[in-house]
Amino acid sequence: MRKILVTGGTGYIGSHTVVELYNAGYTPVIIDNLSNSNIQILNQIEKIIGIKPEFHEFDLCDESKVIDFVQKNPDITGIIHFAASKAVGESVEKPLKYYHNNFFSLINLLNAYQGKKINFVFSSSCTVYGEPDTLPVTESAPVKKATSPYGNTKQIAEEILEETANAYDNYNIIALRYFNPVGAHASACIGELPIGVPQNLLPFITQTAIGKREKLTVFGNDYDTPDGSCVRDFIHVVDLAKAHVAAIKLLEKGNPNGNYDIFNVGTGNGYSVLEAIAAFEKSSGQKLNYVVGPRREGDIIKVWGDVTKSANQLGWKAELGIDEMMASAWAWEKYLKENPIG
């Protein structure tokens, strides 16, 4: 079975991708420094797939440890690189932390594989589009000036990867530009596990519904959208995980577009924050305590993706809708209440 390295593999998207890799016949190997995840997630993954994945705890910013790992694991054929700091607000407060973590980890990995054939899938973001000129946004849309250091790390990382792929023929690289991952595995054994106050909408919704949070604040209802709240392309995390498997498979057979490519990973549909709340209330039967507050600085008004290229060339499309996203997130929140992690 081909071994795929999953950096940040105990995190939210990483853990779901580990499960989907295993389901697709791969052997996932995890590196994580547990700075934004919990070691117990390994046990949760084992409940789903029946085995505990191979796990290495260290920081990818430690170049000597990365080199040592690569030398001791010559049978790794692919890398899915999630490991990065990812909170937009924190990145504004601590830009140097974000530039250090997100660039050194990436560069150390690429350096360690110089001269070795490797398939590399990078966790990028629709944040590179900023406020798009036209919707749905395609992969050929201009990359706008980033509104946060986090967003800037994604833009620059894409440039690093493209230039590396152009300079060396041993790297085959795909960058996946995610929209807004939500939901949890159908087993309710893994899901989004924020440390501290959630930065994303859905865990804040579920934590409010279950009583962990007093109320949810909707940041602005006076935007130029049908109901005044921001619009996003929400994608189920299991669909997103499967996109990574599709990307690895495309790299293995040879991407006709060359050794660097980008794909949007979303549903192609936009849902407003208020529509997401209504969908959650419908699927869970819970009335949500929310208030409308002032706009939040840096928020994009509306964005959703054109996913035609992913369907035609990656051979992937999202299968799960907003109801499954909300129901699975709620099932995970209820699981956590009975089975606390962390």
From TrEMBL:
Pfam families: GDP_Man_Dehyd (PF16363). Pathway: Carbohydrate metabolism; galactose metabolism. It catalyses: UDP-alpha-D-glucose = UDP-alpha-D-galactose. Its EC number is 5.1.3.2. Gene3D superfamilies: NAD(P)-binding Rossmann-like Domain, UDP-galactose 4-epimerase, domain 1. Keywords: Carbohydrate metabolism, Isomerase, NAD. GO terms for biological process: galactose metabolic process. The keyword Transmembrane does not apply. Its cofactor is NAD(+). Belongs to the NAD(P)-dependent epimerase/dehydratase family. PANTHER family: UDP-GLUCOSE 4-EPIMERASE. NCBIfam families: galE. Homodimer. This is UDP-glucose 4-epimerase.
